[in-house]
Amino acid sequence: MKDAGLQFPCPYTVKAMGRNDSTFPTYVTRLLEPHTGPIAPTQITSKSSRNQRYLSVSVTIQAHSRAQLDAIYQDLTDDPAVLMRL
User: Quick one: 48 exposed, middle or buried, by C-beta within 10 A (0-12, 13-18, 19+)?
Assistant: First the structure.
């Protein structure tokens, strides 16, 4: 299936930013897993902001549809701990 330059299924990286807390990567993973199934630690990377106040978490998933991605981004948008999503 093709959608806006994506051909599903395909690898896709979801990014979320929140306060720099050691539990934030796990928190983001738990938000995504209802849509993706189990996420392995090797699929997750994180990086602190220059001033160490924020943490960016990137999770590479296997995307299966635009609807799946829309649902993921809606959950990230609705969650108050997620300050920004990309």
Answer: exposed
